[in-house]
Amino acid sequence: xxxxxxxxxxxxLGESPLANRMRPRTLExxxxxxxxxxxxxxxxxxxxxxxxxxxxxxxxxxxGKTTLARVIANSTRSQFxxxxxxxxxxxxxxxxxxxxxxxxxxxxxxTTLFVDEVHRWNKAQQDALLPHVENGTIVLVGATTENPxxxxxxxxxSRSRIFQxxxxxxxxxxxxxxxxxxxxxxxxxxxxxxxxxxxxxxxVGVGSxxxxxxxxxxxxxxxxxxxxxxxxxxxxxxxxxxxIQRRAVLYDKEGDVHYDTISAFxxxxxxxxxxxxxxxxxxxxxxxxDPRFIFRRMAILAGEDVGMADPQAAVVVASCWEIFERIGxxxxxxxxxxxxxxxxxxxxxxxxxxxxxALATVEKEADAEVPIHLKDASRDKEGFGHGAGYLYPHAYxxxxxxxxxxxxxxxxxxxxxxxxxxxxxxxxxxxxxxxxEQLAAMLEATPSASEILTTSPVSRSxxxxxxxxxxxxxxxxxxxxxxxxEAVSLARHHxxxxxxxxxxxxxxxxxxxxxxxxxWAHTTDQVEATSLRQSASRLPELERLRxxxxxxxxxxxxxxxxxxxxxxxxxxxxxxxxxxxGGEPLAxxxxxxxxxxxxxxxxxxxxxxLQAVPRLGxxxxxxxxxxDEAPDLARSLREAEEALYSEPGTQRLAWxxxxxxxxxxxxxxxxxxxxxxxxxxxxxxxxALLDRWxxxxxxxxxxxxxxxxxxxxxxxxxxAVPGMGAEKSYAEGLLAAGLDGARxxxxxxxxxxxxxxxxxxxxxxxxxxxxx
Length: 772
Fold this sequence. Notes:
Strand order of the largest sheet: 10-9-8-11-12-14-13
Shape: globular
Radius of gyration: 36 Å
Number of strands: 14
Largest sheet: 7 strands, mixed
C-alpha cells in the first residue's frame, strides 16, 4: 500500500458512518457479549493466544459479529481475508484457498478467512470450503443472522464452534454512546455534545439491543442539531425521537426468530398466561405475520393442549377464524385476540395424545383380530356367527352396558386418561367407573383372563431394585455428581470453579458441559493437583482443566498468581467445604468461606455445594449388635456418642440444614436453599479405620482418672473418625462426653470383633446447598 492508498483509506474511514468509525479494534474496546468474550471465556483465550479454530458467530444485527471478526484480524499473526457471501462465489473461494495454500507453503503462515453472511452461500459454495477447513488450510470465521443449524451446511457446522451473540443490554448501549461521545478521533470527542438523560434513554430503549441502530440515530441527532451561542450541541428528547422513531422488530417470516416467537406464543397459551400470549401475538402482528398462520396454530393447540378439558375451545377458534375471514384487517384483530384470550384462560388437557399411544401400539403390536361380537353381522352372521353376543347399549339403562371392545390381546390396556380440569373433571369418575365394570365383566366371562392379571411387573421391579441396592456403594459418587448437575443446569459458555476437587469428579463433568467456557479445579492436596494436571495435559491447551493448589481460603490469591485477578465465575461447585480444617470454629470458618465464594461469583452467579451432615448421619454404635451385652453399656455408648452431636464444644458436628441456611443468608446469598437426601451405601470397615476410631497408641485404664477422664493422653494427635474433626478421635470424643475407660475398652473389643473387615450398611445424609 502506497501513501496515496493509505491517505485514501483514511479519508474514506473519516467519511464513513459513525457506526463504522466506532467499531472496536481490540477486545478491551469491545462492549457486551461477556458470555463469550468476558475474562476467562474460551473465545477470549483463543483470540489472545492466537489459537483460534473455525468459528461461526450467530446473532441479530448490531450485536458485534463483524466487529469480533475485525478484532480477531487485529490480534492474529495469520493472514486475514474477508469475503462477503452476498457478493462472492465459488471463484472467489478458490482464489482465497489458493492464496492460503501458497502462503502456508512459502511462509508457513496460516490464513483466517472471514465470511460475512455465510448463510447466503448455497450448498455447493459451502461444500467448497469443507476440505480446506478440515485440513487446516484456512481457519473459518463465519457470521450469520440465521440459525446456523438450519441455514449452514451441517458438515461445516460440525467442524466449527458456534457462538451465539445476544442483543446488547441497555447498559451496553449506554457504554457505546459514551464511547462515541468521548472519542476525539472517530467520534464526537472534539465537539461539545450534551445529551439529555431522557433522550439517551429513548435512544437506548428504542435501539432494541442494536448498537448500529443507536449509533446511527446518535449521528443523525448530532449532525442535524445546530450549536447554541456557546457551541453546545444539545440533543433533547424531541431530537432523539425524530432521530429514531419506530422500533424495528427483528422478525423474519422464514427465519429462526419467526419460529422462536410462535413457539413462545404457543407455550404462553399452554401455560395459561394471557399477558404473555398477547405480547408475543402483538409482536408477530406488528412485524407483519399472516394472522391465518396464527389462527392455524391456535386451532392445533385447541386440540393438542385444551382438548376435552373444554371442547368449546375448538369451536371458539373456528368461529373467530371465520369472523376474521369475513371482516379482514385491521378489525380482524378483535377475533384474533378473543381466540388467544379464550385459549389462554380455559382449562387445559393433553389427553388427546392418547391417540398417539394407540397409534404406537398399532405399529408395534401384531395384528389384533376384531372380537367376534364386534364384527359386521350384515353379511355372515349365519355362516360365521359374526356379531353374535353383541350387547346393544341403547337397550340398557343410561345407554351403556359393560362388554369387551378392545382385542383379546389388549384387554386392560388404557390409552385415554381424563385430566382433572374443566369438562374432563366431570367425566373422569364416570370413565374410571365404567372401566372397572368392564374389567369385572371380562373376568367373569373369560376365566383365563385372571391368569394375565395375576402376572404383575411388581416382582420384576422389586428384583431390579434389590440388584441396584446391592451395587449402590459403587454408584455413590456418580449419584452425587448427577444430583449437582441436575440442580445447576450449566450453559456451554459458563465459567465454573470446583472447590475441593480431589479426583475431579465434578470438574471433569463441568468441563464436558462447558466447551465454550472454562473450568478451574482447586485442591488442597499437591498429589491430587499433580494427578489432575497430568490428566488435563491430554487435552488441547485452550480446553484444559486449570488446576489450583493451596489452602481453600486462598483461592483468590491463587487465581491472582495465575494471572487471573479479574476472573469471576458463573457457577462455583464443591464438596465437603463446610467442615473446617484443623479444629477451626464454625463461627469463624463459615463466614470466611462463604464471603470468599461470594466474591468469586459474577452478578447472578450461583453456588452448588454438597456436604455430608454428620449430625444426621450414621451412628457408629448402631453398627454393632449389643443384644447379648448388658444394656447399660449400649445405653452409655449411645448417650456419649449423641452428645458429640449436640454439645457446643463439638460445634463442628452439632449443626444441620437450618444452620447452613442461616449462614448463607448472613453471607448475603439470595434464593438460598438446602435440601437433604438420606441414602445408604455399603462400606467396608478396614482395620485401619478401626485404628482411627480407637488409636492403639492410647492406653485405656479400667477406671476413670481425674483430669484424664479415664484415658491417658497420646504422644501424637491421632487421626479422627471421618466427620468427627481432626482434633479428636472417636474414642477421645466418647471419653470427653463422659464414658469411662472401662466401658470404652469393652466397647472397643466388641467393635473390633464384630466389624473388622466386614461390609456394613452405612447411612449418609447429604445436603445440597444452592444459592444465588
